[in-house]
From TrEMBL:
InterPro entries referenced in this protein's UniProt entry, alphabetically: UppP
Class in the EC hierarchy, top level: hydrolase
Major site of localization recorded for this protein: membrane
Protein name: Undecaprenyl-diphosphatase
GO biological process terms, semicolon-separated: cell wall organization; peptidoglycan biosynthetic process; regulation of cell shape; response to antibiotic
Biological classification of the source: Bacteria, Bacillati, Bacillota, Bacilli, Bacillales
Length: 273
């Protein structure tokens, strides 16, 4: 590989890291956009392992942003488990609902995750699924729920968990599907956002624990270590700032613009890719 090829490879991975980082927190499907950019630029990576790797970077950014909520939940979860402190009960139940909502995607991902990725990671499929994401975002664009963290139910958790399972399909946004479901069951925007991104943590962490050790040990990963690290760092920084921006968008109730975006990109992908 000559100098120009190396530079181009680094640029390709930087682009993929940027795409992953920006699109993971916002409801426009990171997996779908990776499929699109790979097709546009003819980029080849280490497949699903690469997606898991850059997803882990996005996970770290989410952990940083929600660190206070995570520390509080862990502290109160332990406190309620050991001492049944009433003031910790709400946070304990919130943890239970996160666990319940994680089960559907965990089971489906283990049984069918690879098959779904192989069958549906095609640009034309992404085009149509982006239109589905657009329609879902349009439906909730004006919703203002009333449920806070302490008002959630088991039924709410199951519905949101099933919505996250649908997002295994490239082009269906994970954050979008869980936020849509959360708001449809009546959560406030802030609660929906927090539940969606805290729900991302066990799924992403579990996938990383299962798959990343084999990826790190592979000769293919070692050979592309520098490009992969560039993608990882870029994805982390982009995810951090994209989520901060998205939190502000949610507070202002401007989800309709993401719906417009998904319609435009979905139609362009269907026509040209």
């Amino acid at each position: 590989m000559d100098f120009l090829d190396r530079v181009w490879t680094l640029l390709e991975y930087l682009i993929l890291g940027l795409v992953q980082g920006i699109t993971e927190p916002i409801p426009i499907s990171s997996s779908g956009h990776l499929v699109i950019f790979r097709e546009l630029f003819g980029i080849e990576t280490t497949g699903l392992s690469f997606e898991i790797f850059v997803n882990f970077a996005s996970l770290l950014a989410i952990l940083v942003i929600y660190r206070k909520d995570i520390i509080r939940l862990i502290k109160n979860g332990v406190l309620y488990t050991l001492k049944k402190e009433e003031e910790a009960k709400s946070d304990f139940r919130f943890i239970v609902y996160l666990v319940i909502a994680t089960i559907p995607v965990g089971v489906t991902g283990v049984l069918f995750g690879d098959a779904i990725g192989d069958l549906l990671s095609k640009p034309v499929v992404v085009g149509y699924t982006l239109l589905i994401t657009a329609a879902a975002l349009w439906i909730i664009r004006n919703l203002r729920g009333r449920k806070n963290d302490g008002d959630l139910t088991t039924k709410d958790a199951i519905i949101v968990g099933l919505a996250q399972t649908v997002a295994l399909t490239p082009g269906i946004s994970r954050s979008g599907s869980t936020i849509v479901a959360s708001m449809l069951v009546g959560m406030k925007q802030e609660t929906a956002l927090r539940f969606s991104f805290l729900l991302y943590i066990p799924v992403s962490l579990g996938t990383a624990i299962l798959d990343l050790p084999d990826m790190f040990a592979s000769d293919e990963f070692q050979a592309m270590l520098v490009p992969n690290l560039i993608a990882f760092i870029t994805a982390f920084l982009a995810s951090y700032f994209a989520l901060r921006w998205f939190m502000d968008i949610m507070a202002k109730g401007n989800l309709k613009y993401f719906s417009y975006y998904c319609v435009v990109v979905g139609i362009l992908v269907i026509i040209f890719l």
